Amino acid sequence: MTPLQTLGERGLIQRIQQNTPAPKQPSTLRGIGDDAAVFTLNDQIIGLLTTDLLIEGIHFDLTYVPLRHLGFKAVAVNVSDIAAMNGLPTQLTVGLGLSSRFTVEAVDELYAGIQAACEAYNVDLVGGDTTTSRSGLVIAISVVGQVAQNKITYRNTAKPNDVICVTGDLGAAYLGLQLLEREKQEYLANPDMQPALSEERAYLIGRQLRPDARTDMVHELRDLDVLPTAMIDLSDGLASDLLHLCTQSGTGAVIFDENIPIDDQTYLAAEEFKISPLTAALNGGEDYELLFTVPPQMFEKLKNHSRITAIGYMTNTPDQIMLATKAGQQTPIQAQGWSQ
Amino acid sequence: MTPLQTLGERGLIQRIQQNTPAPKQPSTLRGIGDDAAVFTLNDQIIGLLTTDLLIEGIHFDLTYVPLRHLGFKAVAVNVSDIAAMNGLPTQLTVGLGLSSRFTVEAVDELYAGIQAACEAYNVDLVGGDTTTSRSGLVIAISVVGQVAQNKITYRNTAKPNDVICVTGDLGAAYLGLQLLEREKQEYLANPDMQPALSEERAYLIGRQLRPDARTDMVHELRDLDVLPTAMIDLSDGLASDLLHLCTQSGTGAVIFDENIPIDDQTYLAAEEFKISPLTAALNGGEDYELLFTVPPQMFEKLKNHSRITAIGYMTNTPDQIMLATKAGQQTPIQAQGWSQ
């Protein structure tokens, strides 16, 4: 008997992928291995399907996560997978496992967050399953989405010399988590304390508790007539997710440390926690921004966009990701990311 | 604060339904309230989406449920929802929460069952999510399916005088559960005992551990050119699921106790457990057979089918389900069903 730990989560997923037979349904266009599965809808439109499982004590800590934010986030992380295929969500189901300590009001709060996200991302809550859970809260969300056949973006189609772009800024969600965890420890040590979370930290905490899926960028890319060659959402951290793009595309990458977009608040909090802001950006995870590649000539259309940053370029050295400093020095980087 | 128990699962689902806004996406044809959600695929074909959450200690007991059977069942119960819409499954995602006590071999067994079901029902495993669980095993499955636009069967379209039909036989899964539970208690009392489950009980235990979704009946109904006016799958028990059909269709029903199909083994085991076989059939649940209605003239095509039984007819007395005896006496029946 082999304990699961010897394989690790990545190893387990690889094992499941390898043991899964190739799709047989004519309507299945892409199975396991991208942000969402892909199936035929009609001549112009492609269907997308993604699912995520959030478990109390693993993915969230109800001592500091408000249920309304949790409901919103549970939807957003799935919608983010649809956005990573350059698609928009249409239908959503919610499976909910509830322990008996939950109140009706608590369920109402959770659903208020789910519905706020459905509103924000223009997706219909169409079904689900509600059941008892012996221990904590379990949230299973599946989302169906759509994308025009000629607009879908996979992970395995980046090309050498493509410009690597990210939306927004990175590392903030990770530092938000550090702030919340510290607050929790202080509260446990002294339950009478007043919350010390200052207003200035609201951005970081918001990025952790209530991340946004970048469907706005899907719209903007359409409006700018920019079609990425490949795209993924940043859930595990830039290093890990960029490695996915590279491995699946058969490319390597060079990224410039100076170019990685990091918010001022992230810098400040990183200093406080004695964490390198670059490490937070590379390995922190949960930013739910989009990472995509475009041919150099197409980047012209994006270079003045305030929320899109070019951070490097794809190379033809498979799987090798180099971090380049201002001084021109290049060091290979390892993906760490989350293992949940 | 209101404890969840005061509302009950049914009450909670109603509350969620009432709080859910009407669908806004043009592609959403039907939201919450049927066996599966319904969305546009193309001019001829309609898409179906359903999800189920299975939690250890609530839906299954790993002391007597083999993981391979559990994997199969987890797929079958979802496929059954697609069959209830007169559709066939095409794509499936699996979300898995695993506690650290699981071994790699155990996960392989579970997936072997999932893959056997994918093979049996001709559906592609296209994605999912694997994560740690703090306590027990959590399985979240979502299935996408298809049905021709002119063949879909909803719950709310049965008409008075329609003949009520069921496939297969009822109550066996419930008695299989009783056998397994008794075995477990005896084993806990005396761990050295030899299993006393005789070969003859294999049918009942099989119906509990590894139920089949009735996609075969979907094919047969097509071949016979029979289109039900309404259909639902029997997961909660005949009384409860028939009440769903009636409530949503604005009808009542009369069913004949003599006509309810019950296997000989179910009769024998019911006697042993001092349970009324009729009660097992009406309230036992988990049979995953199909319950459907057809206009009287269409029933002609089905009357010689060995696996389809007419058990009664729809009336125009809303929500009233009467059980009629041979002697002609009618008594109202209450839906009990499972509350999980």
Automatic annotation (TrEMBL), chains A, B:
Pathway per its UniProt entry is: Cofactor biosynthesis; thiamine diphosphate biosynthesis; thiamine diphosphate from thiamine phosphate: step 1/1
What positions does the domain PurM-like C-terminal occupy? Answer: 159-318
> Keywords, A to Z?
ATP-binding, Kinase, Magnesium, Metal-binding, Nucleotide-binding, Thiamine biosynthesis, Transferase
Q: What is its EC number?
A: 2.7.4.16
InterPro entries tied to this protein: PurM-like_C_dom (IPR010918), PurM-like_C_sf (IPR036676), PurM-like_N (IPR016188), PurM-like_N_sf (IPR036921), ThiL-like (IPR006283)
Which positions does UniProt annotate for Mg(2+) 3 binding?
Answer: D35, D81, D233
Give residues annotated as binding Mg(2+) 5. D236
Instruction: Please list the residue ranges annotated as the PurM-like N-terminal domain.
Output: 33-147
Cite the GO molecular-function annotations of the record.
Answer: ATP binding; magnesium ion binding; thiamine-phosphate kinase activity
Give the reaction(s) catalysed: thiamine phosphate + ATP = thiamine diphosphate + ADP
Task: Indicate which residues the UniProt annotation says bind Mg(2+) 2.
Answer: D52, D81
This protein's name:
Thiamine-monophosphate kinase
Originating species: Fibrella rubiginis
Q: Gene encoding it?
A: thiL
